[in-house]
Predict the structure.
Amino acid sequence: MNSTQSLTPVITIDGPTASGKGTVAHRVAQILGWSVLDSGALYRLSALACLEQGVDTTDQAAVAEVARNLDVEFKGPQILLNGRDVATRIRDEEVGNLASSIASQQPLRDALLARQRAFRCGPGLVADGRDMGTVVFPDAQLKIFLEADVAARAERRCKQLKEKGFSANLANLMKDMEARDARDRSRSNAPLCAASDANLIDSSNLSIDETVNAVLDLWSKHPASTISPRS
Ligand code: C5P
């Protein structure tokens, strides 16, 4: 990391599946005029590239090699893999489940580290994921850990899927979410957990706007912030 990068402010937002961190990260970044890093997309892109190249995903060196060679461009809502928009494809359950499974491999995590840190450029970065505050940006100026109880998260996801015209079963969604969270929390490499200096926000009973405001309130109180504290 060079000195400009370490001076560039970062807000990290970590949390379990469907805690709303992606939406909150995008809104906060938009309001501050900062860049955003959706780190989960990089794990999903690695999983998709492995599927498409027929890579044996138990071969950790081969998976890491795929990640190192990813040709990716984030272009507004588009996510281009080798020039092809895969923004919708990487949200498939098949890709998400494979991403969650290979995410426990340390060579893959190492291969994605520099790529994630390269997103840190002025005027600031909002980074969302599982290990943004603990591993990728341990010196972040503000760290958020966004929690929500599993029922609230499953209901949100169910509503989102139905709005997009997909069928969804609440009980199954809740079961899948609990399994994915358990895997993310219990793995030995970069497990999902709050950094010791993270601010916990429970969004179970908060709207997206209220959660965004809670993050902006915390940021406004930081000495590096140029936005005024809210009353
Ligand atoms: O956030 P999203 O659901 O898109 O992430 C897909 C998977 O990638 C997660 O289930 C998690 O296992 C993994 N992941 C990770 N570290 C991150 C972001 C995502 O291990 N920083």
Q: What stands out?
A: Residues 17, 39-40, 43-44, 96, 99-100, 103, 129-131, 180, 184 surround cytidine-5'-monophosphate (CB under 6 Å).
